[in-house]
Write a structure and sequence with these properties.
The complex is a heterodimer of chains A (114) and B (115). With 114 residues, chain A is mainly β. Helices cover 0% and strands 54% of the residues of chain A. Chain B has 115 residues and is mainly β. Chain B has no helices and eleven strands. In chain B, the strands form two sheets. In chain B, strands 2, 4, 5, 6, 9, 10 and 11 form a seven-stranded mixed beta sheet that branches. A four-stranded antiparallel beta sheet of chain B has the order 1-3-8-7, with no helix packed on it. The radius of gyration of chain B is 13 Å and the shape is globular. Classes of the chains: A mainly beta (114), B mainly beta (115). Chains A and B meet through strand 5, strand 6, strand 10 and strand 11 of A and strand 5, strand 9 and strand 10 of B.
Chain lengths: 114, 115
């Protein structure tokens, strides 16, 4: 069965600190996709990244970076030099290729204080 | 980028009435649309998957007679909450996507409050 675990329920940091959000997944498929979404207080989900299971290269986009490690079934997300605007709930999600359904983790609430 | 709209953005209704929520893909044709429900401070839970012109596929535990889904065209899906009760109060989010595990595009959500 597919499952996504985000063990960190809530994280608080002070502006300019780096923060890593953990995501561990379970799937029996060899082909799958991993996602990160941001949900600010407005509620609208903001797409951050999609990774397929055959691409283990780490990715950097501005202050955001992602570390995908199949050996540990993890897809962690790091925000460098965090800002108050980064405050939101972040969801990690898994999609198996033949279903297109997204299985979401429970989310990590990030609060960045000035 | 692809845009998905939802209408209404929020609705308050009385217990026992029905509420219809629309989900539209504005600039692309969506092969599949998904409906999610999110209770306060919880994760998104998939309710059902709908493909244009066919019956929706409901997740285990979701009452198909209570949550009616219609996907009449490639740009419109509707979710009707029938005989709503206070426990149906939630944030309902739709998404639209293309086949093949591609990115899903999410609507802004509809906050339903049943009094």
């Amino acid at each position: 069965a597919q499952k996504v675990t985000q063990a960190q329920t809530e994280i608080s940091v002070v502006e300019k600190e780096d923060v890593t959000l953990d995501c561990v997944y379970e799937t029996r498929d060899t082909t799958y996709y991993l996602f990160w979404y941001k949900q600010p207080p407005s509620g609208e989900l903001v797409f951050l990244i999609r990774r397929n299971s055959f691409d283990e290269q780490n990715e950097i986009s501005g202050r955001y970076s992602w570390n995908f490690q199949k050996s540990t079934s993890s897809f962690n997300f790091t925000i460098t030099a965090s800002q108050v605007v980064d405050s939101a709930v972040y969801f990690c999600a898994l999609s198996e290729f033949n279903t297109d359904k997204l299985i979401f983790g429970t989310g990590t609430r990030l609060q960045v204080f000035p | 980028g692809a845009v998905v709209s939802q209408h209404p953005s929020w609705v308050i209704c009385k217990s026992g009435t029905s509420v219809k929520i629309e989900c539209r893909s504005l600039d692309f044709q969506a092969t599949t649309m998904f409906w999610y429900r999110q209770f306060p401070k919880q994760s998104l839970m998939l309710m059902a998957t709908s493909n244009e012109g066919s019956k929706a596929t409901y997740e285990q535990g979701v009452e198909k007679d209570k949550f009616l889904i219609n996907h009449a065209s490639l740009t419109l899906s509707t979710l009707t909450v029938t005989s709503a009760h206070p426990e149906d109060s939630s944030f309902y989010i739709c998404s639209a996507g293309l086949a093949g595990g591609d990115e899903q595009y999410f609507g802004p959500g509809t906050r339903l409050t049943v009094t």
